[in-house]
Amino acid sequence: MTTSSDPILKGVVATLGATFLFASQDAITKHLAQTVSIAQIVFIRFLFFSLFAVAYASRSGGVRMALITHCGVLQWLRGLLIVIEIAMFALALRHLGVAETHMLFACFPLMVTALSVPLLGEAVGWRRWAAVGVGFCGTVMILDPGSGVFRPETLIALSAALMFALYNVVTRKTGRQDRFETSLLYFGVVGLIASALAAPFFWSALDRGEVGWLAVLTLTGIGGHLLLIKALQWAPAAVLQPFNYFLLVWAIGVGFVVYGEILSTRELFGAAIVVSSGLFIAFRERKLYRRRT
């Protein structure tokens, strides 16, 4: 017998599947980034994702309707931000492990909370500010700047997190006026245009192995986004938000299995602090949203 909880369970399972595909995608990106230029990888990703976005928009009211936006400048801005974020994340993967990159990247929800005050005019209470402070302490613990083994490459991962935080803040603003299909379409098209401008300067011939891995890379990306879309159709975003942190769990597992990455106790403890802070902020935002509505 079908129960009312079935859609929620489907949404959770779809979210877990999406985060696993994204972690796998990052492991493939790390492999490709050793021999293929970052600009080339980003362009090919957006080439196929833009086709997916056009196909999705055509099935959801038509491409012409999806192109209608009330936030033209902001849609282009968020497209540019996500291109920069993906490029910086790939560059971080070239120099860092999959797990380490994701541990540092996990602080982006804390950045979103901090940036929402000056950029969106949102009010953040002392509890969430405390969670942001504790979370950044966890990030410092992962970096371990006073140990003498601090690597400047870790700043690339933090910069990627900042770009993604800015992207999320802008997406919050566009989401108030534009349809989901519109944001998805501009995500793909603007990303394709921006990456196409840079790709010719870094283009090089690809061998069969690289072409094959790039094909798998695009399939995992599209598959992950499809699962996320289905998850949001089955369950509210507030319910699914905590399960997005499984991306870090998958990244740690994939990094260990594929690249033999072993994390220190200090790094794991710092990551736990960051994730706990992010979960607390998500819990508080959900509670405040319920109170307002």
Please provide a written account of the structure.
There is one protein chain. The protein is 78% helix and 0% strand. The protein is mostly helical and 293 residues long. Helix 2 crosses helix 10 and helix 4 crosses helix 9. The two termini are 32 Å apart. The relative contact order is 0.22.
Write the topology of this structure:
Layout: H1 6-33, H2 38-58, H3 63-66, H4 72-95, H5 98-105, H6 108-120, H7 126-143, H8 154-175, H9 180-198, H10 208-234, H11 237-240, H12 246-259, H13 265-292
Helix pairs in contact: 1-4, 1-10, 1-12, 2-4, 2-9, 2-10, 4-8, 4-9, 5-8, 5-12, 6-7, 6-8, 7-13
Could you provide a short overview of the structure?
The protein is mainly α and 293 residues long.
DSSP summary: helix tally: 13
Coarse shape: globular
Number of E-state strands: 0
Largest sheet: none
Uncertain spans: none
In whole angstroms, how far apart are the ends?
Answer: 32 Å
Summarize model confidence as the mean pLDDT.
90
Strand content: under 5%
Specify the structural class.
mainly alpha
Using only C-alpha atoms, the radius of gyration works out to 19 Å
How would you spell out the order of helices and strands?
A: HHHHHHHHHHHHH
Instruction: Kindly state the percentage of residues in helix.
Output: over 70%
Essential attributes:
293 residues; mainly alpha; 13 helices
